Amino acid sequence: MIHKLLLYMIAISYTITPFVQEDIALIDRYHKHILLTPISPDVENKLRWLATNEHILGTFNLTGASMTDKELRNILMHPSKRPSANERFVHAYKDALTVIRTDWTAAQKPLKVSHVGALGLIAHPWKARDIMRTIREIEPDIKHLLSYIASQKDHPIILAGVLYGQLMRTELGLVSQGTIPRLLTLLILAKYGYDCRGMLALEPRWAQATENHQKALESITHYGNLTLWLEHFTKTARTSFETLYTRMQTHTDVLMKDAPASAWLLNSREERILQQLDNPAVKITNRDIQREFHISQVTASRDLRHLTALGLLYAHGKGRSVYYTKA
Fold first, then answer.
1. What kind and span of H or E run contains 3?
2. CA dist 17 → 52, 128, 205 (Å)
3. In degrees rounded to 5, what are phi and psi of residue 282?
4. Mean pLDDT, 10 residues at a time, over the chain (327 residues)?
């Protein structure tokens, strides 16, 4: 099957080869098993937390920098009042992942240029001017690309691969060091239910073989089509689905290795906070927690920060207006 479309400046052309078809068939098999495998809410939360770590660590390493699992966990679990550049990156990227999961999981709304800009500003607030300028400059390309993605009936994995490959060729990929294209790839997967409830991470496979990843991206320009790139993309996606499925079968060993058990110990207040939020319509603030449990602002902040770091709560807003809902 051959697809071809000439955009404003980007030509989208690719062939769905037998290799891609085989990968997609295996992905769908793993996807079905993952969604039908019964796991406890506790295990699902831990797998989602592990995937969040891998999203951040993988994309951070793909920018050419380096960070260890331990360093990342320390940043997430113990936020600094005066964060370094790396710490700002971690927390901003985590905020962007939260927006994707809360706003785009099974979303029926179309993806627009304004959404691209909003996500870029969340992930890179310190680059706001450059990102918005770049989006304005290539807006026709982005509009046509998003229109193409919305109009196609191809598999969501194919659509995500096309979006990522094409955006990485634009100035937006360069300005954001690839983070915005990667976030939009995750958004497409979440929109079509292929992020496996937030437990799937693609970035580790790409970060483990950065040279192959880069060569596959370069093949788009070299050959004028996305065929080889999509073969690379679906192959690494298949490996990611397989890894998640294996984790779900042997979750105890994996979780104890990657996420120390002590990090998941909740005090009685934290458990009661989660119970209060069982109703999805309920939201709480730091002040609510202070009044409910007769504790200081500092203690309430520590509890809320811990629950948020574990992915059990979502923080909405900034500063004094921030409120929390259950994940």
1. strand 2-6
2. 31, 39, 21
3. -90, 140
4. 46 92 97 90 85 92 86 85 90 92 93 96 94 94 93 94 95 94 97 95 92 94 94 97 90 50 76 83 88 89 85 80 84
